[in-house]
From TrEMBL:
InterPro entries: ATP8_metazoa, ATPase_protein_8
Species this protein is from: Synthliboramphus antiquus (Ancient murrelet)
Region feature Disordered, mapped onto this chain: 34-55
Biased segments, Low complexity type: 37-55
Alphabetical keyword list: ATP synthesis, CF(0), Hydrogen ion transport, Ion transport, Membrane, Mitochondrion, Transmembrane, Transmembrane helix, Transport
Membrane topology of this protein: Single-pass membrane protein
Any Pfam family: ATP-synt_8
Family: Belongs to the ATPase protein 8 family.
GO molecular function, one term: proton transmembrane transporter activity
Intracellular or extracellular location(s): Mitochondrion membrane
Name of the protein this chain belongs to: ATP synthase complex subunit 8
One BP term from GO: proton motive force-driven ATP synthesis
Annotated transmembrane regions: 6-24
Lineage: Eukaryota, Metazoa, Chordata, Craniata, Vertebrata
Length: 55
């Protein structure tokens, strides 16, 4: 069963995580969001009960 041999795949996984962590992730985190969150006060809504005709 070749899938139990971690010899070739462990290095591939390790290099892909290092690539993601060192190169791709800082580039993605440097983008500014287009819709930043605002400090709006939350509005409360009045909940009305649902009137079921069979009760």
């Amino acid at each position: 069963m070749p899938q139990l041999n971690p010899n070739p795949w462990f290095l591939i996984m390790l290099m892909s995580w290092i690539t993601f962590s060192m190169i791709i992730q800082p580039k993605l985190l440097s983008f500014t969001p287009t819709n930043p969150p605002s400090n709006k006060t939350p509005t409360t809504t009045k909940n009305t009960p649902w009137i079921w005709p069979w009760t």
